Amino acid sequence: MNTHNTEYYDIHGLVTARIRWDHYAGWFPGINQPLQHFRVPILDDTPDISVQIGAFEPDLADCCTVDHKYHIRQNYLYCADQHRSFRWRVEIKGLEHGPTEIRLHIRRAPLRYAWLAPGMLPYGIILRHILAYKLHQRGALLLHAAACEKEGRALVLFGGAGVYKTTHLMQFMRMQLGWHYLGDDTLIFYDGKIYSFPTYPAFFGYRLKYKQTEDLSFLDKLILPFYSLRTGSKDLQIAQMGVPDMLVHCKMGVGKPAHFIPADPADSLRRLVHTSMTEDHSNGSVGVNIFSRYIEAYNFVFPQNHLGRRWEIDHQTLMQDVRHYEIQSSEKYDLAGMCKLLQNMIGEPCLACES
Amino acid sequence: MTSYFKIHDILSFQIIDRRPALLRKWLPVSNRYGMFKTAAFAVEEADLVVEIGQFQPDLQDCYVIGGEYFIKPDYLYHSGDHYKLGGLYSFDISGLNTGRCRLRISTNPQATPFISGWVIDFFIFYLLTRKGYSLLHASAVARNGQALMFAGRGGGGKTTLAMLCMERAGYAFLGDNYILCKEGQVFSYLSRLNLFGYNLRPEIWEKMSAKERFSFRLSTLIHRMTGGYIKIFTPFHPMRLYPDRICEQAHLAKLALLVSRGCRDAEAVQRAQVLASLVSNMKLEFISFMRHVDEYGSVYPDTPFAVHWQHYQQLLEQNLPVETEYFLACMPDRIHNESIGEILDEIGLAEMGCN
């Protein structure tokens, strides 16, 4: 176990990042380096985002205090925070503009995070939000969607959490029609194209290889770290980018019949942005919307700042000439039935089913 | 057991407590609204009916998001929010579009003290907004029909300033935590003071009974011993301070936004800035509902519940008059009578200064 560790990332030439650990404790790179796919040996310039993980002393001169815990001045936020058994301190310099420096000190975390996945926390709590905002400043959007690519054309699926986006994506990739993986959680939308953003690709690789649907059992979660250590994302062919060809809005409902219908393009794009905003307001790994608290506290002191308005997006310019569909499934995922439905939707037969 | 409440003649609601008698006695929910208590009225007349106790959610035909939100027209069920010490509650609400709501909350004892502040208060806020009234997180006092409002985050000095105005300049009391406002008229919202170390005033201490003083000291001790994890507020009815000086309604003359900062000055600011801060102030107060509203809006955009925050923002624009004087008051870190005198001077209340 090395004690000092620095990693550099270059995300499609749009944003660069550096993560430095004072005491690196992660044994499983597959779950501790969510941006592993973008890793580069070294960066030439100052990174857009630098994250330092370890103890630090905040610089609180001239700060306003909000709610006894958020210390805020222009372009700066410090907070000693806690949620259930998590405790952390975070300092963000360059919150609104300029190179962003994040310092994070995780003082206590639940055992599964502290031992297995310390790298998930910095990404889940803070980094993914800052990354999304940086991309936004460059004219790119980090949106909540899953996609695969074939011959430069991309099929994009979106919808709230747990509506079987990932399972649909797995179905497409199993059809042996030559689809390649772009991402199953977030994607970069830039200049009318979609760029891959595979966070934790080993998770998807494991699901594709061993699982029927995206749901993981407790045993799977135990095996996953070791799978990611041995195989990593080698099983998975990750495409670079694609031009969107089809945008599918996924829904899941109790007792709802499975079907698909063409969707209204304007409404569909609007919902894509709304879903991503909702996802940004939630916080998967810690279970509470931490970053939106920080933003609201910052908005309170500096109303009408850029960060608070980051979701005011002209969604009509996201993509053009795309087929829009809405697909609905019931709460129990019927593999064979859904496979037929998806075949009908894309208008190509499943080669795996036929053989 | 049913209790009946009315907020002026604007909103009526009833709370039906179906929990066992012992829990009702030890962990009361409706105490928070003690000052709105009124004579019994029919269920049909109530804008909001709250039922507390186990309930069976109506999941048929609901869209499911993240396995925790169940949504169909007019209906939202949230299956669980965790809180400290294993606190857990779930709720469902129907009648979101019509504005006559039935809210059912199921809670375990640990979460009971929080549900009124987090869930019931939010729906009261939502329904008041629908009726065209702006609820503000602020304290207010009035004299000669002219109201003075102090808005800000917790620990900003709202209570302290309101108390000082009453003590030194004979102002009457409108409210301490929330204030209602419509078209320049301020309506009292008499909720309990939630006392904690930082907002205790000596004049309140004098009026407290021995039992209350004991519970106050105990909660401070518990807060210290648990390292800030457990924070229990001591309730106190503001009526007891100046029982003859309660004001029902007044015209909004001045609004000061309190931001804590090392400096001590107050300055006139742009109305637009204050309004934007007031929205953030309310969002921070009901931060978990940002997500609830978003999730509902991702299925049914443009419904009254989905556009709640936009509606609130527009209402503030109408209800807070342009003629009102707006101030930004930078509060000192430690609030003393002397330092506050200077701030009051700036706001134009020189007669209350320390000299």
Description:
The complex is a heterodimer of chains A (355) and B (355). Chain A is 30% helix and 30% strand. Chain A is α+β, with helices and mostly antiparallel strands. The longest helix of chain A has 18 residues, at 120-137. In chain A, a hairpin with a 6-residue loop joins strand 8 and strand 9. Chain A is built from ten helices and 17 strands. The N and C termini of chain A lie far apart (48 Å). Chain A has helices at 29-32, 111-116, 120-137, 165-174, 201-210, 218-230, 265-281, 290-301, 335-346, 351-354; strands spanning 5-11, 15-21, 39-40, 49-53, 64-66, 70-73, 76-83, 86-93, 100-108, 141-150, 153-158, 180-183, 186-190, 193-195, 241-253, 259-262, 323-330. In chain A, the strands form two sheets. Chain A has a nine-stranded mixed sheet with strand order 3-1-2-4-9-8-7-6-5, covered by helices on one side. Chain A has a five-stranded mixed beta barrel with strand order 10-11-15-14-13. In chain B, helix 6 (271-285) crosses helix 8 (308-319). In chain B, strand 2, helix 1 (21-26) and strand 3 (48-52) form a beta-alpha-beta unit. Chain B is globular. Chain B has an eight-stranded mixed sheet with strand order 1-2-3-8-7-6-5-4, covered by helices on one side. In chain B, strands 9-10-16-13-12 form a five-stranded mixed barrel, surrounded by four helices. A two-stranded antiparallel ribbon of chain B has the order 14-15. Chain B is α+β, with helices and mostly antiparallel strands and 355 residues long. Residues 350-355 of chain B have low confidence and may be disordered. Helix content of chain B is 31%, strand content 30%. Chain B has helices at 21-26, 112-130, 158-169, 202-207, 210-225, 271-285, 287-299, 308-319, 337-347; strands at 2-7, 11-17, 48-52, 63-65, 69-72, 75-83, 87-94, 101-107, 134-143, 146-152, 172-175, 178-182, 185-187, 193-195, 234-236, 249-260, 265-268, 325-331. Chain A binds chain B through residues 62-68, 82, 84, 160-163, 251-256, 270-271, 274-275, 277-278, 281-282, 287-289, 292-293, 296-297, 299-301, 303-304, 308, 331, and chain B through 59-67, 69-70, 82, 84, 153-155, 198, 228-229, 259-262, 272-277, 280-281, 283-284, 287-288, 290-291, 294-295, 297-299, 301, 330, 333.
